[in-house]
Each structure stands twice: as structure tokens, then as C-alpha cells.
From TrEMBL:
This is Transcriptional regulator with XRE-family HTH domain. GO terms for molecular function: DNA binding. PANTHER family: BLL4672 PROTEIN, BLL4672 PROTEIN-RELATED. Pfam families: HTH_31, MLTR_LBD. Residues 28-81 form the HTH cro/C1-type domain. It comes from Catenuloplanes indicus.
Length: 277
């Protein structure tokens, strides 16, 4: 199988993915049994042009982030994921590295939340994935690269986007995120990427102080105000679900049914997903 090469492997595995299994609508005139190239690209958060070059062997050095995104979109098992990493020239992440793997069982859960704004972070608070309703609510995450994908860096540098915080809420959020990162470093002391992240964060003015501080007594506020450019301010419940075995944080944003906030959220999702098409 390894003789296929990375691009050919992705191409063959794309053909075997049933569109309905990954939430892709199937029309009557559809001829392809598996995923179309543009469909896989959209699921993985990469451009269709780049996927074309990968499959044709014209791009030969995909990043580990791209490999993981394709593995997730293709719904492959752990052994196949490890193979995909090797074909791309990377070592598969071991247990001493912060995991960013979304296992099939968790992906099925996310599929059931397809109409709810949901974002998934790893234990370093680096973005793993965001669904279309989340991007519609908060602004597109697809253009984030490098440190831009880290929630701690974004908050410490004022790039928290559309969420409205009081000074007290912001201070508590930043302290909580850094305290959680400190625990993550203690669990993954050999992760070089995590060490580089901490080194980069030390350049943020408040980070060194927060790194040495005691954890905050209270967790982050569960209700958040989103200042959406098209529909105005929306007050939402934000619940964080921790997948302990895979060290993931799933954040879901919801509103009480029948309220004005629920109506604004629905409108924001409709307007945002239309603009993302």
C-alpha cells in the first residue's frame, strides 16, 4: 500500500467514503460513489487546488496539520492514519505529544451537532476544527495559520474576535487558559511543539505573570455575548465538554428556544453559511 504514495492513497480513500456518512448531501444525478475532490477539501479545510496538487503528486510535502485534517475528513482508523503520516514524511504523533486526533465516536457526536456552532480545541488550546455554524457566528477560521490557531495567543493579543468581555471576564478567561496550559505542559513534557508554543507565548506581555500565578478560583463564564456584524449582539450559553481520553475540548454555543437570541443565532448561521459557500 505504501507504494501508492501519499496523493494516490488519499485519492483511493476518498473514493470509498460515502458522502452521506460525512454529512455531504447526495443529489439524484450524482455519479461519484465516494467524495468529490472539492467535498473532501471543504471537510479538511484546505483548498481544492491544493488537494488536486497533492493527489497528482505536484505537492509532496503536506504539513502534519494537513495530514491530520485529511485523516479526520476521510474517517480513517488509527493504523491508516499512521500510514498517512509516514507517506507524508512525518512520524505519527505518539502518546507524549498533545493529541489532535478526533476519533470516529467523537466525530459522530459532532455530526449530530451539525446545526450548532461548535469548535474543538486540543489540550494546548490550538484549533482542531470548527464547523460551518461556528464560522458563521464567529468569523471564518479557515485563514488562521500558526499561532493564529491558538486561543491563548488570540486572547492575549486582542484577537478574540466577536466575543464581548468585561475587563474582569477577560482577566479570568486569560488566567484560566494559561493555568490549563500549564497543566498540559506537565502532562506532555516531551512535546517539542508544545514547548515552542510556550516560548512564543512568553512574548505576550501578560503571559509570564499569568504563567506564575495561581489558578483562578472560578471557571470562565458560561454565558457569552457575541457581537455579530449582521444581526447585532447575541447572548448565548457556551458549554465546554472535555473528552478526557483524547484530551480535547468541545465548545458548543446555544440559545434558549423561542427567544430573540435564538432567532438572531439562527439568522447569523443562515447569513454566514450562505457567505461561506
Amino acid at each position: 500500500m505504501e507504494s501508492w504514495g501519499f496523493g494516490a492513497t488519499v485519492r483511493r480513500w476518498r473514493d470509498r467514503v460515502a458522502p452521506e456518512a460525512v454529512g455531504v448531501p447526495v443529489g439524484r444525478r450524482r455519479r461519484a460513489a465516494g467524495l468529490r475532490r472539492e467535498e473532501l477539501a471543504a471537510l479538511a479545510g484546505i483548498s481544492a487546488d491544493y488537494l488536486t496538487r497533492l493527489e497528482q503528486g505536484r505537492a509532496t510535502a503536506p504539513s502534519a496539520q494537513v495530514v491530520e485534517a485529511l485523516a479526520r475528513a476521510l474517517r480513517i482508523n488509527d493504523a491508516e492514519r499512521d500510514l498517512l503520516y509516514r507517506l507524508a514524511g512525518h512520524a505519527a504523533p505518539g502518546r507524549d505529544v498533545v493529541p489532535s486526533r478526533v476519533p470516529p465516536s467523537v466525530q459522530r457526536l459532532l455530526d449530530r451537532l451539525a446545526h450548532t456552532p461548535v469548535v474543538v480545541w486540543d489540550a494546548s488550546w490550538t484549533l482542531v476544527l470548527a464547523n460551518a455554524p461556528y464560522d458563521a457566528l464567529m468569523g471564518a477560521t479557515t485563514a488562521w495559520h500558526g499561532l493564529e490557531r491558538n486561543a491563548i495567543w488570540r486572547n492575549l493579543t486582542g484577537r478574540n474576535g466577536r466575543v464581548v468581555h468585561t475587563p474582569e471576564e477577560r482577566a479570568g478567561l486569560e488566567a484560566g487558559l494559561v493555568a490549563d496550559l500549564r497543566l498540559t505542559v506537565s502532562r506532555y513534557p516531551a512535546d517539542r511543539g508544545l514547548a515552542r508554543l510556550v516560548g512564543e507565548l512568553r512574548g505576550c506581555p501578560r503571559f509570564p505573570e499569568l504563567w506564575e500565578a495561581a489558578p483562578p478560583a472560578q471557571g470562565p463564564a458560561r454565558r457569552k455575548i457575541i457581537d455579530h456584524p449582521a444581526v447585532g449582539r447575541i447572548t448565548l450559553d457556551c458549554d465546554t465538554l472535555v473528552v478526557a481520553q483524547d484530551d480535547l475540548r468541545i465548545m458548543a454555543y446555544t440559545a434558549e428556544p423561542g427567544t430573540e437570541d435564538a432567532e438572531r443565532l439562527a439568522l447569523a448561521i443562515v447569513l454566514g453559511t450562505q457567505s461561506l459557500v
